[in-house]
């Protein structure tokens, strides 16, 4: 089994930020806030967060905030709940949540809860259980979870549960590993995991492991490094992670590294990107790979960051 090329991955992440004009950078411009979260959290897990300029990052993040309280994916882009969570998570990494007008951000998120307990992503009204997770996670990190109707939020997520134990993006939607993480994570944060059939869901999730060792998002799909996070975190939250072969997942992730230039891809020999680099390293952290900081499976932030927010340590 190979080793994690940690130093190369740090260099890769730092180089991505400097490239402003290549195709990948231009194509990613609208979700730069998410990219900042993926890259900076990876650096923190690798113990290298101090290699970026804290004040520069915080200043850029705050320049993406709108009068509504929500954040855009980049300067001048419309606010969305997706980017609002990433902004809060990055500020949490740097222990800089105090720069926020918490009430303003809270009011923005609260305004997106619908009568049935679901959440819209922005003023245009798309509904998805991803947005339920984001709202719950974000408000919890800000100590404002009591500002939404938690009971209705739980009820809506439970209404998206399927006969196979999994969850979809709306009621009746197909079970998918990414949506399952969102629903399990939100229920975990709201203290409502008792609504899950852990054995049934655990069985569906452990069946996502293919012969190559990697994990997929739903039946008959190819494995993808990002599901190392979505599947493993869910299995950990429902206490069924021992049902998969951890060594094989580790090998699959390590096989997806570019050991020369850094970065991790979705599958071996594909092009690397920040998204899969983060989820690969985060997956290895969940599997307690040596040299990585532990990550919280519900909040998707390093455990020490979460502890500082909730217990002040």
TrEMBL record:
<dbReference type="GO" id="GO:0048229">
    <property type="term" value="P:gametophyte development"/>
</dbReference>
<dbReference type="Pfam" id="PF00432">
    <property type="entry name" value="Prenyltrans"/>
</dbReference>
<dbReference type="InterPro" id="IPR008930">
    <property type="entry name" value="Terpenoid_cyclase/PrenylTrfase"/>
</dbReference>
<dbReference type="GO" id="GO:0004663">
    <property type="term" value="F:Rab geranylgeranyltransferase activity"/>
</dbReference>
<dbReference type="InterPro" id="IPR026873">
    <property type="entry name" value="Ptb1"/>
</dbReference>
<dbReference type="GO" id="GO:0046872">
    <property type="term" value="F:metal ion binding"/>
</dbReference>
<comment type="function">
    <text>Required for male fertility and root tip growth.</text>
</comment>
<keyword id="KW-0637">Prenyltransferase</keyword>
<comment type="subunit">
    <text>Heterotrimer composed of the alpha subunit RGTA, the beta subunit RGTB and REP; within this trimer, RGTA and RGTB form the catalytic component, while REP mediates peptide substrate binding.</text>
</comment>
<keyword id="KW-0862">Zinc</keyword>
<dbReference type="InterPro" id="IPR001330">
    <property type="entry name" value="Prenyltrans"/>
</dbReference>
<keyword id="KW-0808">Transferase</keyword>
<protein>
    <recommendedName>
        <fullName>Geranylgeranyl transferase type-2 subunit beta</fullName>
        <ecNumber>2.5.1.60</ecNumber>
    </recommendedName>
</protein>
<feature type="domain" description="Prenyltransferase alpha-alpha toroid">
    <location>
        <begin position="4"/>
        <end position="300"/>
    </location>
</feature>
<dbReference type="GO" id="GO:0048364">
    <property type="term" value="P:root development"/>
</dbReference>
<dbReference type="InterPro" id="IPR045089">
    <property type="entry name" value="PGGT1B-like"/>
</dbReference>
<keyword id="KW-0479">Metal-binding</keyword>
<keyword id="KW-0677">Repeat</keyword>
<comment type="function">
    <text>Catalyzes the transfer of a geranylgeranyl moiety from geranylgeranyl diphosphate to both cysteines of proteins with the C-terminal sequence -XXCC, -XCXC and -CCXX.</text>
</comment>
<dbReference type="GO" id="GO:0005968">
    <property type="term" value="C:Rab-protein geranylgeranyltransferase complex"/>
</dbReference>
<comment type="similarity">
    <text>Belongs to the protein prenyltransferase subunit beta family.</text>
</comment>
